[in-house]
Structures are given as structure tokens and as C-alpha cells.
Design goal:
Blueprint: E1 7-12, E2 17-24, H1 28-36, H2 38-44, E3 51-57, E4 64-70, E5 76-87, E6 91-99, E7 112-121, E8 124-132, H3 136-144, H4 147-163
Antiparallel strand pairs: 1-2, 2-8, 3-4, 4-5, 5-6, 6-7, 7-8
């Protein structure tokens, strides 16, 4: 593992955005696969000791990933990513929504719009993620739920997955 590879995380309340940047010591093909294939996503998406469990995934424009974050006691928190524009190996957009197990949105918990961009230089890939919230309150609630800590832990998991390949 390369300790020089860090996660940059910032919240911009004025514009209702969160920006996350992470550099991985791996090719864009490997990093892209880890974000777009459910078998790989399940290995890193949730912060330990939680795990991601896929119910269904259709990675294409108009498709979605329905999954649960499952805790060690069996508790499941359901969510889905609805995919928008996909430019393979470059970027994809999606709408992240908390749901029930059937994918029906939970209006009590705010979602966000994501754009994940992948840039390779040499054999290092930078992933830039921009999350846009509808309101400042939605952004604040997401942060209060531990998004920053949890997502950084997940990205550390991804680094482990990529290193083990």
C-alpha cells in the first residue's frame, strides 16, 4: 500500500456540494471495474465491519444498483444508485437514494447526485467525486450521519482490494 495516496474531502455548504478526491496506485481499468461491477463493489463499498450486499445491479444509462449496507448484527440499510450518463473509463453520473428493500425511495433521508470522474496518469488513477445535494440541510444531515468517515473507510477498503489484485 502506498501511504502517499490520500483522500481529500471537502464540503462546500454554499453550493451544497461535497468533493472527494482519492488517488489509487492502479490502472483506470482496475479502478473503473471496482466501481462498476457488483462483485467488486461488495468488497469495498461499506465501512468495516459493515458490508455491501447487492440485490440487483444493471450498470448502464438508466439502470441502477440496489444494495444494502449490512451491519454485523444483520441490520440492513437499503439504497440505490440510479445511473445517468456513463462514459466508460472516464466518468459516470448517478442519483443516490436511500430506499426500502424493493428500491422504493425513503423520503426521510436525503439523497444526492454523484459524478465520479476517473483520470489515469502513468499507472495511478485519480477518482474525483462530486456530490450535489438539494439543500444545505440535506448536506448537513448526510455529514451528521458520518458520511465523511464512512466513505473514507470504504475508499481505504478499495485501496486494499486494488492492492490485492
Amino acid at each position: 500500500m502506498n501511504s502517499n495516496l490520500k483522500t481529500n474531502f471537502s464540503a462546500d455548504k454554499e453550493n451544497k456540494k461535497v468533493h472527494v478526491e482519492r488517488i489509487f496506485d492502479s490502472s483506470v481499468n482496475n479502478v473503473w471495474a471496482a466501481w462498476t461491477e457488483s462483485a467488486l463493489l461488495e468488497q469495498w463499498w461499506a465501512p468495516k465491519p459493515w458490508k455491501a450486499v447487492t440485490k440487483s445491479m444493471d450498470f448502464r444509462e438508466g439502470g441502477f444498483w440496489l444494495y444494502a449496507m449490512q451491519g454485523p448484527d444483520g441490520t440492513k440499510v437499503w439504497a440505490r444508485f440510479d445511473y445517468g450518463t456513463i462514459v466508460p473509463l472516464k466518468y459516470f453520473t448517478s442519483e443516490d437514494t436511500f430506499t426500502d428493500e424493493n428500491g422504493v425511495p425513503n423520503s426521510d433521508i436525503a439523497g444526492s447526485n454523484w459524478k465520479a470522474t476517473f483520470t489515469e496518469a502513468g499507472n495511478v488513477t485519480t477518482v474525483n467525486i462530486e456530490l450535489v445535494f438539494k439543500t444545505v440541510s440535506d448536506l448537513e444531515k448526510t455529514m451528521e450521519m458520518g458520511f465523511e468517515e464512512g466513505f473514507k473507510m470504504a475508499l481505504d477498503n478499495l485501496e486494499e482490494v486494488l492492492t490485492s489484485k
